[in-house]
Amino acid sequence: MRSDFNITDYAVYLPAINDTYARCLVTEKLGSRPFPAGLDIADLEYWNENNKLWHYPYLLHSIGSYKVGSNPDNAVTRADKNTAVVIGDSGGFQIGKGTLVGYDALTAHMPADEAIAAWDAADDVRSWIFGWLEANSTYAMSIDMPLWAAEENTKSPFSNCSRDQLLQMTLNNLQYIDVRRQGHTKWLNVVQGIDNAATEQWWNAVKKYRWSGWALAGGAGSRGGLAQLLHAVLLMRDDGAFVEGLDWVHTLGVSQLKWAIILTAIQRNLRKVNPKLTMSFDTSSVFQQGMRRENAYISPVLTTKASTWVLPAESSPQSYKKIGSTDPFPFSSAIGDKMTVGHLNVQDWDAFDKRQYDNVSLLLLSNHNIWVTLDAVQRANECAFGANRHEHTPQLFLDCIDLIDEAFVAKDWRGFIAKNKSTFDAHSRSSYK
Description:
The protein is built from 14 helices and ten strands. By secondary structure, the protein is α/β, with parallel strands linked by helices. Strand 4, helix 5 (163-180) and strand 5 (186-191) form a beta-alpha-beta unit. The chain starts with 11 loop residues before the first strand and ends in a 5-residue tail after the last helix.
């Protein structure tokens, strides 16, 4: 059973640790509650290099999970920054949605001038975000005003703003960070897009803020599909965006195995320019499945069929009849192989209550899901870049990797991407037969 992971050759998956997991790691007590032998709750803090279960130094955590002005004390804020790499998200998603807790000046579908004025006046919010990221992050994302906020089907306070107005607010945020940053964290400038034209406009406006790297979001990231992502990366490359010192590139909101190998392919090409460069990607799905839906991931058997390159999930066994059970937990992982069903089913209320899980149960289940995801990501990369890559990797994925390599050396990369757009778009489909 794997107890650590390859963190040098492949793009890095960042579990997006939610506030509940971070808090419960330090607040929950076992008491007489059953728990896997020889372990403690602290061993579920996988980024702690001294835990006895398994170790992986990377995580993402968002300030958008908290109330404006709060100073959370949890396992993430206590993390040893000498051994853990914490990527701090600035809460752009919550700002764009107008759901940042404790900030009530924004309401859905405000007139553009009122929304802009409200954000201009939000110095306390900007200061709080900036201070938290400087104090708690190894790398921190800039405060962007996402372009998707202006799409008609959103309920964003900024839905009536133009792309130019969202970009100007972002430039103001970038200037705010630039004059105040203290060097406690390494800042990543967020690049947004809807289509290629919007990405180019955004990039040309923000590219002067060259701090420690970049984050790719919206249509400049995975949301636009592989062709648009590759367009953004090569556009940036031509402007010297990936030279030494600009060493980290994060792609927001994606964790599929097919994207893991694509980002590794891009990383391999960018490392020809900057050997220190790291690509990373994240989602919170491991916690949505484990803590909200109480589902367990199952390690996939990867084959040449693209439909096998997913993480299947099943309901974790829960019943009042399973309290005290010594039956093994039915899904394998570092923690799963040490668990019994009775380690999860502990709430002995009555036969009519459907929930026998407590907060510690959810910690255990989420830790299982994180490990299964990391293991699957590594096996996907081993399949796609190993000596026998054709035996376990769908041909479409291999074709895309080969085309990425060719795009990086093409004299007319724009024309090359356009010529092969159908293959790139096929990779970006949400499902396969």
